[in-house]
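Our consortium's second objective concerns turning raw sequence data into structural hypotheses that experimental partners can test. To show how far this objective has progressed, the report includes one record in full. It was chosen at random from the queue rather than selected for favorable results. The single chain below, 217 residues long, was entered without modification.
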Amino acid sequence: MTASRVNNSRRRAGLGLATLALGLVLPGCAPLLVGGAAVTSAVVITDRRTSGAQLEDQGIELRASGRVRDELGSRVRVNVTSYNRRVLLTGEVPNERDKALVAEIVGKVDNVTEVINELAIVNSPSLRERAADTVITGRIKASIIDVKELPVNAFKIVTERNTVYLMGRVTQREANQATQIARTTQGVQRVVRIMEIITEEELGRLQFPPAENTTTK
């Protein structure tokens, strides 16, 4: 592939991320398609978790969210993000008791190995603030795409109130690169690393098929 075609491909990917960011905050937007194929299929192929682990993480997120909603209703806003059975809790709760209760509920979900409780005791953010968080996530992903040796699908990125949480199975080199990108992204106030560090040798043994950098959720 020529350099111009590579650059065009990266620009299209960046445009797709911008479209995704808007789609997450604007109602009625269709699912993002890249090159005529849904992004999801590319994510499954290039994700460094096994397909079983990916499905298990999705199940953890669904079960945990459902149990929190059943127990606490609308008085809390909790986002559950699972990566390799490690669960990140972000969002807002009214008091310390509810913060601890949410962590307890999620910790009892089958297959959860760790709960990282980043819930804030503040009022829920406005639509504008939530949209700003979505834009920050999109900017970081677009910047990672621009780094040829840094696969965006190796990371799961969550932004809450201008704080960026980085999750994934990555080498120390990749973790440092992604952290630097996040720290220098416009609007970011804080970066929290929740990454599983693997060696370069372990990375080599994963033996993923070659693929262009595409986006994950």
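The partners drew two points from this record. The chain has two domains: 3-47+125-206, 51-117. The two ends are 27 Å apart (CA to CA). Both points have been shared with the crystallography group to help prioritize constructs.
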